[in-house]
Design goal:
The protein is α/β, with parallel strands linked by helices. The chain has helices at residues 20-23, 46-62, 97-102, 110-122, 200-208, 224-237, and strands at 6-9, 31-36, 67-69, 125-132, 139-145, 151-156, 178-183, 185-191, 213-217, 240-244. It has one domain (6-244): Carbon-nitrogen hydrolase (Nitrilase/N-carbamoyl-D-aminoacid amidohydrolase). The strands form two sheets. The chain has a six-stranded mixed sheet with strand order 1-2-3-4-5-6. Strands 7-8-9-10 form a four-stranded mixed sheet, with helices on one face. The longest helix is centred in the N-terminal third of the chain and has 17 residues, at 46-62. The protein is globular and about 50 Å long.
C-alpha cells in the first residue's frame, strides 16, 4: 500500500489556518508542513510583491515550513487589464493589455532567480506563481523550486478561466505533471491552479501519476461549493490538497 504523508499547515497571521477537511485525506505517515501564504499583493508591482513574498517566506521558515505556496499569479497579484466594451474599465484596471503582457517573466528574470536563491538560502521548497513569458500570449504558471534552488517543475494552468479578460489572453498549459521533493523522505507533488479544481480529470491525472500532495494556488473567492470541490478531490484520489489564496479568499481569516 502506498504510504501517504500527513501534512499540516503552518499557522502565521498571513497564512490560512489548517482545515480538517483538507487534512483528513492525507492519511498516516510523515509530517510535511505546507505554508499557505494568504497575502494581499501590491497590484502588478513585481518588485514590491517580490519583497513581500521574501519577507513571508522567511517568516514561514521560522515557523517550520517545508514547502511554501503562493496565491495564484503572485508576481502581478492576479492583476487584470482594461478592455473596451467590458466592465474592465481604465478607472478600475489601469493597465492596458501590452503593459500587462510586458510584466510577464520567465526563469531568466530577476523575479524567479530571486526566489531560487531564497529557497537555496533557507533550504526550503518554494512554489512561486507568476505570469510567464511565452510565445504569443503569456501563461498562468507555478514553478516548484527545491531546497537547492533548482526548478524541478513548471506547471501552466490548463483550464484557463476564459470568462475573464485576463485569462482569456493566456496560453493554456499542455498537461498535468508531478515532481519529487526531498523532504527527508521523498514526497511526490502535483499542482492544480484555481479553476483546474472544477474538473475531476485534473486531480485524477495527478493521482495516476503518483501525486501524494496537490498544491493549488488560487485567486477566486472561496465559498462552500468550491471548498466542497477540494474535499471531494482529496477523498476521490486519496491524496492531500493544500490550497492558497489571497486574504479575501478564505472566509473568516485575516491575511496580510
Amino acid at each position: 500500500m502506498q504510504r501517504l504523508p500527513l501534512f499540516t499547515l503552518v499557522a502565521l497571521l498571513a497564512l490560512v489556518p489548517s482545515h480538517p477537511a483538507l487534512l483528513a485525506a492525507a492519511g498516516e505517515g510523515n509530517e510535511v508542513n505546507v505554508a499557505l501564504l494568504q497575502l494581499a499583493p501590491f497590484g502588478a508591482d513585481l518588485e514590491k510583491n517580490l519583497e513581500k513574498g521574501e519577507d513571508y517566506c522567511r517568516r514561514a521558515k521560522l515557523q517550520g515550513a517545508d514547502i511554501i505556496l503562493f496565491p495564484e499569479m503572485w508576481s502581478i497579484g492576479y492583476s487584470r487589464f482594461h478592455l473596451p466594451g467590458t466592465n474592465y474599465t481604465p478607472d478600475e484596471y489601469p493597465l492596458g493589455f501590452e503593459e500587462w503582457k510586458a510584466r510577464a517573466v520567465d526563469s531568466s528574470d530577476r523575479f524567479i532567480r530571486h526566489f531560487r536563491a531564497l529557497a537555496r538560502e533557507l533550504e526550503i521548497a518554494i512554489v512561486i506563481t507568476y505570469l510567464e513569458k511565452w510565445d504569443g500570449l503569456p501563461r498562468n504558471s507555478a514553478s516548484v523550486i527545491n531546497a537547492r534552488g533548482e526548478i524541478v517543475m513548471t506547471y501552466a494552468k490548463v483550464h484557463t478561466s476564459d470568462m475573464k479578460a485576463t485569462e482569456s489572453n493566456c496560453t493554456p498549459g499542455d498537461g498535468f505533471y508531478v515532481c519529487d521533493l526531498d523532504l527527508g523522505d521523498t514526497v511526490r507533488i502535483g499542482i492544480m491552479i484555481c479553476f483546474d479544481r472544477e474538473f475531476p480529470e485534473s486531480a485524477r491525472i495527478l493521482m495516476v501519476k503518483g501525486a501524494e500532495i496537490v498544491l493549488t494556488p488560487n485567486a477566486c473567492n472561496l465559498e462552500e461549493k468550491r471548498l466542497s470541490q477540494f474535499r471531494v478531490r482529496a477523498i476521490e484520489n486519496a491524496f492531500g490538497v493544500a490550497p492558497a489564496g489571497p486574504p479575501w479568499w478564505w472566509p473568516g481569516t485575516a491575511g496580510r
